[in-house]
Please model this.
Amino acid sequence: MEFYKKVILELLSAVLFSVSIPNEYLIYGSAFTGLFALVPHFTALKNSTSIKESCILCFIQCITTHLLSSWWLGLFEGFALFTLGASAIGTGLIHSVFGIFFFLPKYIHSLKAAPENIRIKVSNPCFTIIWFTAVYTVFEFVKCTGFLAYPWGTLPLVTYNAKFLSQIVDLAGTRLITFIYSLFAAGAAVYFDEWNKNRKTVDFQPALGIALIFAVSVFYGIFQYTKVRIPQKYINTVFIQQNADPWKMKDDRQSILVSEELTGKAVYDMHRKGFNPDLIVWSEGILRFPLPEGMIHYNFFPEESPLLNFIKEYEVPFIIGGPYSLNFDNLEFYNSAIVFNKDASLKGYYAKTQLVPFAEYIPFTKYKIVQTLLLKLAGFARGWVPGNAYKTFDVECQNADGSRDSALISIPICFEDAFGECCRGLKKAGSELFINITDDSWSLTKSAEYQHYVISWFRSMEFRTTLVRSTNSGVTAVIDPSGKVLADLPLFEKNYLNFEVPLYSNTKTLYCIFGEWLSFILVIFIAFYTISAILFTEKSLKNTRAV
Model:
């Protein structure tokens, strides 16, 4: 196959992938189209002729998918150079490295000195299917892990409408979806390529195995999706969606006043229905002045209705997004969820641990030369300091029988609800409810809002724990442990959501206990094959030279 045909296949794969992910036209994407998104990619890789070509093909497919599906990162204020440019190149380079592993069996097979048993094994279509599946799954694991992690543009995003299949994430996280979808794509690519080349009957036994895996996954999903879950506790909660971009305001006066106005209406509405709120939640990035130093400031600001007086008036705990000082004099701050007691005293804060790379957190900014360069390129010189602890907070609630009780909640901030490992840390700290606060108003696009919502949606099923998203522009929603949406608000609308949030039995799923066990097994498989193949080949080469 000519190189230009392989490039066309990679571009086709990128288009299919981008159409399958939530976008401006298909807001929840397409689970069916997603099944075939990687077929052209794997077909091109199966026909690659060198490691270099394999790496180039992987780079083309990945960077094109990123630009087509995450183009809205270019709207990230002055950070577009880093958020879109750096992330596109970074993810493309990561995938290009995996091009080495995609081609490795073919390279081993091409060596005349390689042992015959290994040559036969790697030329087997069944081995190719398993190998491509393992390598791609590990690629997405690496892409979603660490400082440079970016979980967007991944296979799980295409499965929102495949509600039964999505339930399997409580077993091994979203990488299990990656494994199953890439297994289908690898099987389709290999069978199509074999038939196209040989024009003869191929062995369809592996296809039956793939069909069986899909069937078992769907039956498990039906069981989990239809399972009756009885709430143990309820938290009467007010969620405020003020639909205002705090980045475009000179201070936080308008954000606070709009949030106060909506809070007043929400609480009045709740009282009218005979309920009292247990908790009031505003979104990320509302406050500008760092706390605890800002406690004096917010005793008098905004002048029309000082924030702390407002909280005292309602006598309800508040969660509000804002900065918290690590070192005020050195301008070192956390992006935090700040929790206020009923009397407006400071209960505590949770500092965001997973920061957006090269936007919220930039390495080496303590050095003057880096600060100067950043000021010239992007107009800013510092980022947030990452948090280092998973925290929970106790909140008053009511039991199912009406008696009063308390529950432990956690507050993953914005980007963090996209990471299973982050919420796993919060769950293991005792969290009975995830309350995510988010600011995505800068995007002004449906695709950005729905992609973030869909990727966070999996957390409810991974841990069989209620997830609430309280955003400033969308998607504000309450999601139960089966992934069912109990309540939500329209995008880009100034509104509030009053809801009796249900809390269920605080059990730990297989994924909560063992984490990314599937990814680690596949890493071991790839490493074992790679090392053993190299060692056997090296041994065979030495024997050949000796003769």
Notes: Residues 299 and 518 are 51 Å apart (CA to CA).
